[in-house]
């Protein structure tokens, strides 16, 4: 009988998701309690089935290719949906002291390093992340980080940071396209975010705020900010960056400001405290707000 779903091996997809999330075959193996060789075998089988490379193998670990990043978002969404359903059916008490929900970009670039620092002074408080780029429905959490206006919700919120929005790319990209002024960006390849679920400033709005027309250069569109940042690092185009959020990438020199012009972000990143938050969740929320 024909299969109802066109899927690769579920085992391979689970190994792929763990390797992509950890950016490491070794860490994925530890998480899944198998050997790194087993993870590598599953990834190679998956790449063979799909007919494309999903990872760039590097000395310091692995990085997703563009197609790998596309698959990662899809697999993560599917596993999150299954996990949510199983959690609700089990109806078991939470094992973590604090559960915080945020997007992939905020988790990777900002929150995870903050949690590591928090544990140095509060080693007994366990913090669990729910990482998703899909709008929350009935997911249970104590805290969540959102990009928006504090007046949009009557619930308790604390402002974490509000960035300036800059044009980012690699030095190689800037040299190849002769970028030194905003006018140069109008004809350069640009990476656009196509995600109606978020309200992040886009390129036309950025140029308009600086008194310029709509850009006419080549357009590359994605629906995930981490993919957009990776595409910029791969010299596909320039990307808009929230300077506080992408600070680590700029400090590492992986992305640089292409022009001196920038605009203030019209919205900030806020920490939302949900009604179910207990004393430990509020302790973490207070520490997070003060450390921002």
Automatic annotation (TrEMBL):
InterPro entries: LysR-type_TF_proteobact-type, LysR_HTH_N, LysR_subst-bd, WH-like_DNA-bd_sf, WH_DNA-bd_sf. Residues 13-65 form the HTH lysR-type domain. It comes from the Bacteria. The keyword Oxidoreductase does not apply. Coiled coil: none annotated. Keywords: DNA-binding, Transcription, Transcription regulation. The keyword Magnesium does not apply. GO terms for molecular function: DNA binding; DNA-binding transcription factor activity. Belongs to the LysR transcriptional regulatory family. This is Putative LysR-family transcriptional activator.
């Amino acid at each position: 009988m024909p299969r109802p779903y066109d899927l690769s091996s579920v085992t391979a997809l689970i190994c792929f998701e763990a390797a992509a999330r950890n950016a490491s075959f070794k860490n994925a193996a530890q998480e899944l309690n198998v050997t790194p060789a087993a993870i590598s075998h599953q990834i190679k089988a998956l790449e063979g089935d799909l007919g494309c490379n999903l990872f760039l193998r590097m000395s310091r670990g692995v990085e997703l290719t563009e197609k790998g990043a596309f698959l990662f978002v899809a697999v993560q969404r599917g596993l999150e949906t299954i996990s949510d359903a199983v959690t609700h059916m089990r109806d078991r008490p939470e094992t973590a002291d604090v559960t915080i929900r945020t997007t992939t970009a905020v988790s990777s670039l900002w929150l995870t390093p903050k949690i590591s620092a928090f544990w140095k002074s509060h080693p007994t408080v366990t913090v669990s992340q729910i990482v998703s780029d899909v709008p929350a429905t009935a997911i249970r959490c104590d805290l969540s980080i959102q990009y928006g206006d504090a007046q949009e919700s009557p619930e308790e919120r604390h402002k974490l940071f509000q960035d300036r929005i800059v044009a980012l790319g690699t030095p190689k990209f800037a040299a190849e396209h002769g970028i030194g002024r905003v006018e140069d960006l109008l004809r350069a390849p640009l990476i656009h975010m196509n995600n109606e679920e978020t309200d992040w400033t886009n390129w036309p709005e950025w140029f308009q705020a600086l008194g310029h027309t709509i850009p006419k250069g080549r357009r590359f569109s994605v629906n995930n900010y981490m993919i957009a940042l990776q595409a910029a690092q791969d010299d596909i185009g320039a990307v808009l960056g929230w300077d506080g959020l992408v600070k680590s990438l700029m400090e590492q020199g992986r992305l640089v400001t292409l022009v001196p012009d920038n605009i203030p972000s019209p919205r900030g990143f806020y920490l939302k405290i949900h009604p179910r938050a207990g004393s430990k969740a509020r302790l973490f929320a207070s520490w997070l707000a003060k450390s921002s």
